[in-house]
Design brief:
The chain is of the alpha+beta class and 152 residues long. The chain has 2 domains: 41 residues, Arc Repressor Mutant, subunit A, CATH 1.10.10.10; 81 residues, 2-Layer Sandwich (Alpha-Beta Plaits). It is built from 5 helices and 4 strands. The chain has a 4-stranded antiparallel sheet. Helix 2 packs across helix 3. It is elongated.
């Protein structure tokens, strides 16, 4: 990625609905070369997609929970099984395999504590290889998805 590609990515992170003409103007290119670069960035997998940023509270999802999950018997089979089951959880926003006290860190967004209790009892605690679950409820969101700072 050269300097222009990084500018294109930065502008699209700020506003994914920019027209090609607007984007070209912002990065100092004419529309045709700009569109070619965007398509190459998409084909290379650098730009993975475009999506709407939904206000969680406006759609009734007011509770964010960060769940630390520890696995009892470490094996590739258990890790694969946990990953598959976690990916199917309703309201899952992100999930990471991590180092430290827990093995997985999942972010789940639900309507309320009762909805989270259902996620916990129906999806997480039903996994026999889970040894420990720790739920951390977000009190306030400070920052959400800032654009990646790509160095020049």
């Amino acid at each position: 990625m050269d300097r222009i590609d990084k500018k294109i990515v930065a502008e699209l992170q700020r506003d994914g609905r920019l027209t090609n003409v607007e984007l070209a103007d912002r990065v100092g290119l004419s529309p045709s070369p700009c569109l070619r670069r965007v398509r190459l960035l998409e084909e290379a997998g650098i730009i993975k997609g475009y999506r709407a940023d939904v206000d969680r509270a406006a759609v009734g999802l007011t509770t964010t929970v960060f769940i630390e999950i520890s696995v009892d018997r470490h094996s590739k089979q258990n890790a694969d099984a946990v990953q598959e089951r976690l990916a199917a959880i309703p309201g899952l926003v992100s999930c990471h395999m991590v180092s430290g006290n827990a093995d997985f860190l999942a972010e789940v967004v639900v309507a309320d504590h009762a909805a989270y209790e259902r996620v916990l009892t129906e999806h997480i605690l039903t996994m026999e290889m889970i040894s420990n679950v720790r739920s951390n409820f977000a009190l306030r969101t400070i920052c959400v998805q800032q654009p990646l700072a790509l160095s020049e």
